[in-house]
Amino acid sequence: MNPELLEVLACPRCRxxxxxxxxxxxxxxxxxxVAYEIRDGIPVMLPDAARSLATExxx
Length: 59
Prior knowledge:
One of its GO terms (cellular component) is cytosol. Belongs to the UPF0434 family. By secondary structure, this protein is mainly beta. It has one domain: Single Sheet (N-terminal domain of TfIIb), CATH 2.20.25. The protein contains 1 helix and 5 strands. Strand 3 (34-39) and strand 4 form a beta hairpin. It is globular.
């Protein structure tokens, strides 16, 4: 993903920083513990479409 675009993207839930997980093709918000899918190079930044990371780690 374009580094300049990544700098301006923010989590739609908390407005926090999102980090790219290139291997999983998603953007991750550590504050909310959610991941947003990157589909065909386009991040799907919809709160209802986010995948919770908390349930995966057992938290």
